[in-house]
Task: structure prediction
Amino acid sequence: MAGRPRKPSELRLLEGNRGKRPIPKVPKAEPLTEHPPGVLDAEGRAEWRRVTKAWSRQGILIETDRATLLAYCLTWQTYIGAYRRGDVPSNGIMQQFTQLVTRLGLSPVDRARLSPKEEKADGGGIASILQEQAPNQRVARK
Result:
């Protein structure tokens, strides 16, 4: 099946359900808080800690994302290692890096889409719901 890969339900909830399609329920999992795997070098471990610190608090990065995060950190350490040796990373590494950044929501565009909706200060109610649906129309009150 060609096209974009499906977004995880957690990301769709954070972005808001613009398409109004049903969002499948995903079993809850614990946030990913474990230490970096030993296969990573110092650069990879530092990146692992940075990403898990940022995303685990918000419940975006969970235990089942471990393999994707590991692939990202391995690609990161390869990318940084090439620059430190004075080499230019290959196009394959760059493409893999870009795909993993997008999957994990690490680019500025992806983060902008993840902004949680703000809570209304007016206490909610039917009037605020109607106002959200039709902001240019007046809501009749008794």
Q: What stands out?
A: Helices lie at 9-15, 42-56, 66-84, 91-104, 108-113, 126-133. The chain has a mean pLDDT of 75. The two ends are 53 Å apart (CA to CA).
